[in-house]
TrEMBL record:
<keyword id="KW-0408">Iron</keyword>
<dbReference type="GO" id="GO:0046872">
    <property type="term" value="F:metal ion binding"/>
</dbReference>
<dbReference type="Pfam" id="PF14226">
    <property type="entry name" value="DIOX_N"/>
</dbReference>
<keyword id="KW-0479">Metal-binding</keyword>
<keyword id="KW-0223">Dioxygenase</keyword>
<feature type="domain" description="Fe2OG dioxygenase">
    <location>
        <begin position="176"/>
        <end position="278"/>
    </location>
</feature>
<dbReference type="GO" id="GO:0045543">
    <property type="term" value="F:gibberellin 2-beta-dioxygenase activity"/>
</dbReference>
<keyword id="KW-0560">Oxidoreductase</keyword>
<protein>
    <recommendedName>
        <fullName>gibberellin 2beta-dioxygenase</fullName>
        <ecNumber>1.14.11.13</ecNumber>
    </recommendedName>
</protein>
<dbReference type="InterPro" id="IPR050231">
    <property type="entry name" value="Iron_ascorbate_oxido_reductase"/>
</dbReference>
<dbReference type="InterPro" id="IPR027443">
    <property type="entry name" value="IPNS-like_sf"/>
</dbReference>
<dbReference type="InterPro" id="IPR005123">
    <property type="entry name" value="Oxoglu/Fe-dep_dioxygenase_dom"/>
</dbReference>
<dbReference type="InterPro" id="IPR044861">
    <property type="entry name" value="IPNS-like_FE2OG_OXY"/>
</dbReference>
<dbReference type="Pfam" id="PF03171">
    <property type="entry name" value="2OG-FeII_Oxy"/>
</dbReference>
<dbReference type="InterPro" id="IPR026992">
    <property type="entry name" value="DIOX_N"/>
</dbReference>
<comment type="similarity">
    <text>Belongs to the iron/ascorbate-dependent oxidoreductase family. GA2OX subfamily.</text>
</comment>
């Protein structure tokens, strides 16, 4: 059993009390093998900010190889894992501390920056032989996730009736696209308190994120009415999560969704998340093709690099887009009501 080191369990926050539903009664699910899934995807993005995709075409043997490699790494002695943390910071291995601004959770993780459509050759002390196969699985998985993300973003463009089908997908297919792969391991939490934070509530800053986990639950999403819902795990499917950048590109028609993870009690949770971002120099502003007559942008223009830098200076739960809005958040919500 993996036992995480300092900081101690007592320093890990409890989840904020909020109205909760034990299990969501309906997870918007999109079967990508069926014709014309675009409208269902649009409805899920507008109503929930997340959905699950099935029949996605991703080789599950590849997923299992990556999961096996991650499990092998996380089972190493803590000193060996910490050695790779020092060599790769701020990427690489992390333990409980999330980011640089004081957020903590009951997890350990591997974080990979994707350069030129791949991660650099992974060299991990004490993991040299397996790391070559692990790196191969990482890069195959990244290719599969980029293809899946591009397919979904093209369907979003179709559903929004934008003539240029690749208006979103081209942003993540560029060699300079800024993308990250995160592998999270949540060991069983000893002396479990009610609702120990595995990963605190947050939105993702990129266009979309694609999350897959093993069969251990813990993932929760915030609904528009403030309730938190637990999404049952499904190892054979992927959750797609709307990010802040897509919210801006659609001028608030889609909303990035807050999500979090509750620390597990009996079994380890292992998840892998692909964050699909554009090049650092990409201007993030509402698409002219979506703007109705007289509609104004809710956001000032900025680059992805500018937003990423600002996001990294905030706490997980902060509303990052507030600094980039032309109007207040309440005005945005009122505007949504008038469009419905």
């Amino acid at each position: 059993m993996v036992v995480l080191t300092t900081p101690s369990l007592d320093q890990i926050p409890l989840l904020k009390s909020a109205k909760q539903i034990p299990h969501i009664s309906y997870v918007p699910t999109i079967d990508l093998s069926k014709p014309e899934p675009a409208l269902s995807i649009i409805n899920a993005c507008k109503s929930f900010g997340f959905f699950k995709v099935t029949h996605h075409g991703v080789d599950m043997e590849l997923v299992e190889r990556l999961e096996d490699g991650a499990r092998e790494f996380f089972s190493l002695a803590q000193s060996k894992k910490e050695g790779w943390a020092a060599a790769k910071a701020p990427m690489g291995y992390g333990n409980k501390c999330i980011g640089l601004n004081g957020d903590m959770g009951w997890l350990e993780y591997l974080l990979f920056a994707i350069k030129n459509s791949a991660v650099d050759q992974v060299s991990m002390p004490g993991f040299e032989v397996s790391s070559r196969m692990f790196c191969s699985a990482l890069n195959e998985y990244i290719t599969a996730m980029r293809d899946l993300a591009s397919q979904i973003l093209q369907q979003i463009a179709n559903g929004l009736q934008i003539q240029t089908e690749d208006v979103f997908s081209s942003l993540i297919e560029n060699e300079e696209s800024d993308q990250i792969l995160r592998l999270n391991h949540y060991p069983p939490c000893p002396r479990l308190k009610s609702g120990v934070t595995g990963f605190g509530e947050h939105t993702d800053p990129q266009l979309i994120s694609i999350l897959r986990s093993n069969s251990v639950g813990g993932l929760q999403f915030a609904l528009k009415d403030g309730r938190w819902v637990s999404a049952p795990p499904d190892p054979n499917s992927f959750f797609v999560i709307v990010g802040d950048s897509l919210q801006v590109l659609t001028n608030g028609r889609f909303k990035s969704v807050k999500h979090r993870v509750v620390a597990p009690e009996h079994s380890s949770r292992l998840s892998m998340i692909f964050f699909a971002g554009p090049p650092l120099s990409q201007r993030i502003t509402p698409l002219p093709e979506l703007m109705q007559e007289g509609e104004e942008s809710m956001y000032r223009e900025f680059t992805w690099g500018e937003y990423k830098k600002a996001a990294y200076k905030t706490r997980l739960a902060d509303y990052r887009l507030g600094h980039f809005e032309k109007a207040t958040y309440n005005q945005i919500m009122n505007r949504d009501c008038s469009l419905q």
